[in-house]
Structures are given as C-alpha cells and as structure tokens.
Amino acid sequence: MIRWQLFIHAPKENSTMSSEKRIDITQPLWDQSTFVGRFRHFAFISNPLLTFVPEKQLYEARDLYMKYKAGQEPPGTTMAQVIRAKQLYESAFHPDSGELQNVFGRMSFQMPGGCLATGAMLQWYRTATAVVFWQWVNQSFNALVNYTNRNANAPLSTKQMGVAYVSAMTAAMSTALTFKFVIQKRATNPILARFVPFVAVAAANWVNIPLMRQNEILLGLEVTDENGKVIGKSQIAPIKGISQVVTSRIVMCAPGMLLLPVIMEKIEPKPWMQRIKKAHILIQTAIVGIFLTFMVPTACALFPQRCKLSTDTIKRFEKENYEEIVKNTDGKPPKYVYFNKGL
User: Model-level pTM greater than 0.70?
Assistant: First the structure.
C-alpha cells in the first residue's frame, strides 16, 4: 500500500485534529502543476490493492470524508485516518455524482483488469478467432471503464452507449483483422504479428472514448474561472480533454504491448521456455502487470486533471458560448477557463 507519509511532510500518525493543521480534503495532497505531483496523486488513488477494500469500509471512509469536509469529524480522529478516508473515497466514488463506482471500472482495477486482457491478447494472436474474441473482451472492459469514469453531468442514453460499444468493437476487430491478414501476406518478420493487438487497441480508443463522452461535445462542458466558479460552457473544452484522455490510455498500454512482444520473441525459442509453454500466458500477464503498475499513474499524470482553455479560442470558435462567459463575468472574461478532463 502506498504510504502517504512518503510524499508529504506530515505529523505522526497518532496526532489528532486538535493538534494538527487542517487540510483541504477536496484537493490533491501534492502540487498538480508538476508531473511528479500528479504521478503521486494518481499512484495514491489507483493502487491496485484498493480494489480489495470491502464496500462497508468504503462507505465508512466516505462518511468520515464528508464529516471532515464539514468540520464535524468525531473527536480523536487522526490525520492518518483522514488521509486514508480521502484515498478510499477518491479511488472508489465518482467525483461528480458521489456514487460508488463499479469495482471493475475504477482506476485501481486498471492494473489487474488490464494485465489479464492484455496478456491474453498478446498470447493468443495467431488465429482470427482468437483475435476477435480477445478484442471483444478488451473492448468490453474498456467500455465499462469509460462508462464508470464518464462525466455524470452529461449522461448517455442506452442507445448512445450501445452505439459507442458496437462502434469501438467494430473498429478494434476490423483493425486487428486487417493488419493480421496484411502482415500474414506481406511481412517477412513474424514479430510484426505480435503488434496487431496494440494497433487495434489504439484505433478503438479513438472511437470508444469520444463516443462514450459524445454528450459532452454535443451539449458542452461546464467551465469555471480560476476560483472554481462556473461561468459558462464550451464544446471545445471536452474535445481537448477527450484527446488528452485517449492519448493517456494509449500511452498506458504501450510499454507492455510494444516491449513485451520483443521480449517474448527473443525468449520463446529458448529450450527452457519450450518446456513451460503452458506457463507463457502467466509470464506475459505478470510482466504486463508490472508495466501497468507504473504506467497507470504515469499515463494519468501526463496532463493536468484540471485542464485549461484560452477564452480567445472560445471567442474564435464558439461565439455564443463566449458571449455567455462575458455576460457571467460582468464583461471581464478571464484569460483561461478550467474544466475536469476526466479519466
């Protein structure tokens, strides 16, 4: 378990609120203007061990989080308890709706879920049937993650979710099968076939995530001033945010899906590997898991969670939204507006 004491100057764990300076529990513990600060924050809330925390404990953490936020925490509450409650709450509850998220869609499940799906795609890539099946499994998992981390202020209809799911599946499978058949016919290096899963996953991400978050683009996303006050909407803001999320998701899986094929191509012919063929899937899954343990917080930290957009850009492309911002700021629009890019 990641220990918050490693990253912040904090009091001893048994110190109580009466002797300790209060924190703003709604804000990250580390400076989000730096990559290192963002990495620490996402490592804090995406720790795979958080997946196994019982629901009862999660709800207890939520209660303490809310009580501390209101300044009504029980007497004797320690800073360690507050930080732990913050970690559990932010890892499991939706930031917009406050609802408990499906465990399989949480960022803390990205490592165990991702390593199983990716390990299988990299192991069973030789037949069209295997390619189609494991792309379906992976895209189903991705669709669940995207739905779980959607913007709750722009809900999708059942039809829109269905279209997004089917479109992503079609993109992944068609890309995978096309590349597979092209490589089989023209490529002389067999290792190229091992990269088919990555190409398919990358293509599907550019379909799946935008469609899952299409209402943010169609209806616009609320934007705020520097102090967090909502001053209007923008349709360009979600386009920027979604582009960054797609890039992060591809970066997240890239090392495992690009480096592991090279590793396996080198070691599979070895006699000792030939003697343990049934263990190849376990080896690949374990290696992918190691990559994802570091790449989940790394990819999430590539861009600030609180994204900013120049009001000059809104003025140029969204005149009506810009005029609304001007109206809501008494004719003095800020240089930048801010919004949550999502995960």
Answer: yes
